[in-house]
Amino acid sequence: MSNKMKLIIPGVVVLLFLLLSSIFVVDERQKVLVLQFGQIKQVRDEPGLGFKIPFIQEVVRYDGRILSLDTEVIEVTPSDDRRLMVDAFTRYRIRDVVQFRQAVGIGGVQTAEDRLSSILNAQIREVLGADQVTSNTILSQERRNLMNRIRDNAQTSAEGLGLEVVDVRLKKTNLPDQNLEATFARMRAERNREAADEIARGNEAAQRVRALADRTVTETISDAEREAQVVRGEADAARNRIYAEAYGADKEFFAFYRSLEAYQRSLRGGNSSMVMTPDSEFFDYLRSANPDQ
Amino acid sequence: MAGNSGGPWGGGKSGGGGDDRGPNNGGGRRPPEGGSQMPEIDDLVRKGQERLRVLMGGGGGTGSGGGSGGGDGPQFGRGTIGLAALGAVAVWIFASVYTIKPEEQSVELFLGSYYSTGQSGLNFAPWPLVTAEVVNVTSERTEEIGRSVGGREEGLMLTTDANIVDIEFQVVWNVADPAKLLFNIRDPQLTVQAAGESVMREIIAASNLGPILNRDRGIIADTAFRDIQATMDEYDSGIRIVRVNLDTADPPEEVIDAFREVQAAEQERDRLQRQADAYANRVLAESRGEAAQILEQAEGYRARVVNEAEGDASRFTSVLTEYTKAPEVTRKRLYLETMEEVLGDIDKTILDESIVGGEGGSNVVPYLPLNELRRNSGDNTSSNSDSSNTQGN
To answer: Which of residues 288-347 of B touch A (CB under 8 A)?
Structure first.
C-alpha cells in the first residue's frame, strides 16, 4: 500500500508535468510560432489554448501589438540645399510571424528595429531629398503628404521583413545648430525693423494729425476773419447809408454843422495853441459894437 | 541564455524548462499594467510541483478545488490533509479574487483571449483559466512635451517663414478602452509623446511665426488635440486625449528682447499718436475760440458803427429841424457856441491887425516866444480849464 503510493505519486507528477508541458496559452497580445528543431510547425495568430509535443517543440512568442521605433536625427538636404535636421518615429507591427522569423532569425525585434531604422532613414532621405521637395515644402501643409509617402515607401521595403508599417511621422525638422545663430540674428533684425517701422509710423501719424490740426486752425481763423470783414463791411455800408440819408437833407447846413463839430473835436484839449488876428467873424464885436459900420 | 536574447516576448527558444519567465515578464515595462501577470504553463508546472510536494495530495488540477482524490499518506493525519486542502482552497480564492478601484477597469482573459471588461468592485477570475489585468482608465496622465532638458531647448520648432519658435505643451490623456490599450500598442506613453510632438511640429511647420505668438494659440491647441486623437484612433489604441495645453509659444530666449522692443515700439507709437491727438484737440479748441472772438468783435464793430451813425444822424436831423425854423439865428448861435468852446480850450495869441499888417507886422511873428507860451500852458494842464478861462477872459 505505502509502496504503491510511493510509486503512484511520482507517476502522477510525471503525467501532470507532461500534460502541462504540452499545452500553451496564446495571449491576446501575442503571435506564436511552434518550432520543432528550428522548423516551423504551427503558427498561432489568435489567442487561446494550444498544444505541442513536450520537449521536442518549443513556443516562440512575438508581440502582436503596435510597436514603436524612433529614428536618430539625420541631416537631410532638400533640393534647395537648405539643410535640415530631421527625426521621425514609426509605428509598426509584426504582420507575418513566419516571414518575420525567417527575415530576422533569432535576433528578434532588435534586429528588426535595426533593419527598419535603416529603411526609414533611407526613405526619409529619399523623399525629403527628392527633386521637387524643398525645405519650404517640408515646412508647409505638404508635410503630411511627404510623411505618407515615406510610410508607403517604408512599407514596401519592410514587406520582406514581415512587418507592417502603420505610420511614419516626422518629428523634428530643425535647422542645424550652426545655422541657429544666423536665424536668430535674422529674427532680431526683422524685429528691429518692425520696431523702427512702428516708431516711424507713430511719428508719421502724429505729424499728420498735427498738420491737419494746424490746417484746420488756419481755416477756422481765416474763415472767421472773412466773415468778420463781411460784417464790418456791412456795418460801414450801413453807416454810410444812414449818414447819407440824414445829411442829404441839407447839404449846406451839413457842411457848416459838421465843420463846427470837427473844430470842436480836433482843437480840443490844452495842447493846441493858436496865433490869430482878431479879424474873424468871431471877433467882430471885440473891436466895435457895430462892426458893420 | 535563450530567454533574454530577444525582445520582451523573446525570439529565443523557450524550452520546456521552468526557467523561461524572463522574457514573458515584459509586462513590467507597460506602465499602466498593475495587475497580475499572465500565468505561464511552465510556471504552472513548477507551482504545481511545489504544491504537490507540500500537500502530498493526489489531486490533479489546482482548478478542481485542491487535493480532491487524495490518498491517505501514512505520515499525515486526516486533519493535516484537511487543513492543507483548506489552505489550498484559500490560496486559490486569494489568487482568483481581485478588487478594482473606482478609477480602474480590468481586462479579463480566458486562456489568453479577451473575455470581458471588469468594472470597479470585487471581481472573480478563476485562476488559472482566467487572468485579469487592471488598468487605470479615468486618471489623467500628462505628457510634457518641449520642456527644455539640461539647458537644451527641446521645444524649438521651425515655422513656415523659417523662424524659430519655442513651444511647450502638455497632452493630457486617459484610457477609453483598456482592452484596446493592452492589446494594440506596446508603449502608450511613448506613443502619445511621439504623436503629440509630431502633430505639433506639423502644425507649427505649416504656420507663420506671427499668428503662432498671439491670435492662433487657441486654434493650435484645438488642431493638435484633434490630430493627436485622430492618430490614436488610427492606431486603435483605446487612448482618449483629454486636452492639449499650449503652455508656451514664445520666441526663443535668444531673440525675446527684440520682440519686447517691438512691443515697446508699439506703445511708443501709440504714445506719439495720442500726443498728437492731444495737440490737435488743444489747438482746434483754441482756434474755435479765437474764431468766435473775431466774429463777435466784428459784430461788436457793426453794432458800434451803426449805433454811432444812427445817433449822429438822429442828432443832425433834430438840429436841422430846428435850424430850418430859424436859420439865421441858429446858424449864428451854433457858430458862436462852438467857437467859444473851441477857443476857450486852446492857447491863444491874438495879434492885432495893426501890428501884424503892413511891412513891419510880418516881421513880428518870428520873434514871438512860442515855446514860452507853450510851456506856460503845459504847466497849467492840471488846472487846464481854469487857466484857459483865465486866458480866455
So the answer is: 288, 290-292, 294-295, 297-299, 301-303, 305-306, 308-310, 312-314, 316-317, 319-320, 323-324, 327, 331, 334-336, 338-339, 341-343, 345-347
